[in-house]
Design goal:
homodimer, 18% helix, 4 domains, 396 residues, Molybdenum Cofactor Biosythetic Enzyme, Chain A, alpha+beta, six-stranded mixed β-sheet, Molybdopterin biosynthesis moea protein, domain 2, elongated, Molybdopterin biosynthesis moeA protein, domain 3
């Protein structure tokens, strides 16, 4: 049985991006950039006034001791200046305006008194260059602003707007089909008998995929029947990612692995040393990959975070895997068995942030897990987690 | 000048939800639940088999010492059983199936040998009740599954599917208008002269709002002209949230506060002891609230996270404010001045997660901030942050 890392290694070996497409900046949030974005000019593009005040040449103040200046021009943001400066002169200037090169320092309006077209500086010393953001100090024209292979967040989107890019190249999204299997599974609006339960795994997977803007092409429920499974899976195999749940364990009606193999999906592994989610099956055909997950809701949730999301990120060339944090544990927890175990947890940030487990009755518990903010790893070789031990934590 | 907490207090005093509407579960991700969702039946709804194996009465094994059992029925998930058990009998049962009450324990298939319709148990001891998730152990019928006033994540959506809710009540979204002001500001596809810059603040705000599924009704750019500002703001005032950027500082062309007040927006405060974002103006009229932010991109980004997002969360009755973490600082940082200061940072999780500042040239730096994952607070009364000091950190 493979370890988590071994299983991830196999999964990652199948990852490749699904091509590139152009989208508008308005649709780019959450997409993964597929081109390097370069600065179209210097930033700031001019010596930008960082304060409302008076722009002057510092030598006038420092060496010539001038404290009263004649205002030769008012410069507003968005306008060029017309006049150059002589000794003893200054510009009145507004935040965001282009400071002419004749001036090299700005004094804040709060530190001055203006009388008609004269202004007195009320400070005893100044710092040359103060309150001017120099042209090109943030970025030079032609420098890299955003490298390819990052998932675009609001801050990135703003920087793309700054450099005037309204259309950009991002990686295409994969096509995904979700098949939930089981004779006990009913659709959300169907009547359930006492021995039946409602399908929820497709909602988990679909919701997680929305974070990457990935739509689900088709969601279906199929009973534990070899013919019907063969038919449904066969019709779904021409997809980039097929995600099944249920039917992968030791039960007599667990036909999913054999049906997948009969349909030409090459098994890359079956079973991982992880709890929950041990019976995970993973394979590949000429169209893409197949994740066949156990049917328990918590198993599906963990499998998504530990295997499917990292696969997506790897496929999109994202430089890091999901955002794992390493935080102190805020409880005591003993573990039996030899599996790496993921447990639902919350973050308690009353003082220093720590990871606190939430109660759950097992991987079939579909209602208690809602109180968790994510999952923490209780590693196989640690029989006990103590307060303060550092654990890996992943937000849902 | 108000502190951050005082400003937030005033902002929160204006928060009220925007009513309630019904949405489909397929549109509910990220929305805030406005009703308590109750368990429609016990969970598990029956004594659920947690393993593939054999269900029997533990007294047979423990007190009568029986090791070989007659299989009277095979029970699959999704089907009721037909037979009751006599001493020395068992059911063959699959994961997820309803275990009849005649049996109280399941032994894993791995720990048995089956010969025709007889099965031998290969273990020396068993635990009564093992491998059965008891009816109602996760949740009783009528118990609360999800309380109102939570932002729905993928795990919540799955639990809503489980209990068969396909339509649910969520808080309505506010209508939002964004006005970016400044003679120096050009639209993304317009030509920029050397003393002009491109508008990016509306992209920041719009992107952040998407996380709450809040659409922007209108985005406009208005020059620093009192009449044009009056006209534009006047046309935009009938909205739940009006967000302006630029024109709120000490400059001679900073007309936004006076225009807002002339149009009947009551000023609740102007200026907060925060860096960046000090000139923040906040007011209210009969339609809603107005945030007038400084024009610098980093100021807008911080103001959104520290004032606007908490206002939204408060309006949606979310029980906690944005997800603040408290983590050790991974650098040394001195601070001048008496303002609470937010600095762009990354999380380094090589070992225990710590907060590491990223370089930025000031609040006008529109390109360097892209390397940060969030912001950390350098509090006003701490002249120096040292390695290991605990700081508040917020993901973007």
């Amino acid at each position: 049985m493979f370890s988590i890392a071994e299983a991830q290694h196999i999964i990652f070996s199948t990852a490749k991006n699904w091509g590139v497409e152009t989208v508008s900046i308005n649709e780019a949030l959450g997409r993964v950039l597929a081109e390097d974005l370069i600065s179209d000019r210097d930033y700031p593009p001019f010596n930008r006034a960082a304060m409302d005040g008076y722009a002057f040449l510092s030598i006038d103040f420092i060496e010539k001791g001038i404290r009263e200046y004649k205002i030769v021009e008012e410069i507003y943001a968005g306008y060029p200046s017309k006049n150059t400066l002589k000794s003893g002169e200054c510009y009145k200037i507004m935040t965001g305006a282009a400071t002419p090169i004749a001036a090299n320092t700005i004094i804040r309006v709060e530190d001055t008194i203006q009388k008609e077209n004269q202004v007195e500086f009320l400070v005893s010393e100044i710092q040359s260059g103060k309150n001017i953001a120099k042209q090109g100090e943030d970025k030079r024209k032609g420098e890299l602003v955003l490298p390819r292979n990052i998932a675009l967040n609001p801050i990135h989107i703003a920087s793309i707007a700054v450099i005037g890019i309204s259309q950009l190249q991002v990686y295409k999204l994969p096509s995904v089909v979700i098949i939930s299997t089981g004779d006990e599974i009913k659709g959300i609006n169907e009547k359930v008998d006492f021995f039946q339960i409602r399908e929820s795994n497709s909602y988990t997977v679909e919701s997680f995929l929305k974070r990457y803007n990935i739509p689900v092409r088709k969601k279906i429920i199929v009973p534990d029947n070899k013919e019907k499974l063969t038919q449904a899976i066969s019709a779904a195999l021409q997809t980039d990612i097929l995600i099944l749940s249920g039917g992968v364990s030791m039960g007599d009606a667990d036909y999913v692995p054999e049906v997948l193999q009969a349909l030409g999906v090459k098994k890359l592994f079956h079973k991982v040393a992880i709890k929950p989610g041990k019976p995970l099956w993973f394979g590949q055909n000429q169209y893409g990959v197949v994740f066949a997950l156990p049917g328990n809701p918590f198993s599906v949730q963990v499998a998504f975070k530990i295997f499917i999301e990292p696969f997506l990120r790897k496929s999109f060339n994202l430089s890091s895997l999901t955002n794992i944090m390493k935080l102190p544990f805020g409880a005591i927890r003993k573990k039996k068995g030899s599996l790496d175990e993921y447990i639902p947890c919350c973050i308690d940030s009353t003082s220093q942030s720590k990871v606190v487990p939430t109660s759950i009755n097992g991987s079939g518990d579909v209602t208690s897990i809602v109180n968790s903010q994510g999952i923490a790893l209780h590693e196989k070789d640690r029989p006990e987690l103590k307060e303060g031990d550092i654990v890996s934590f992943l937000y849902w």
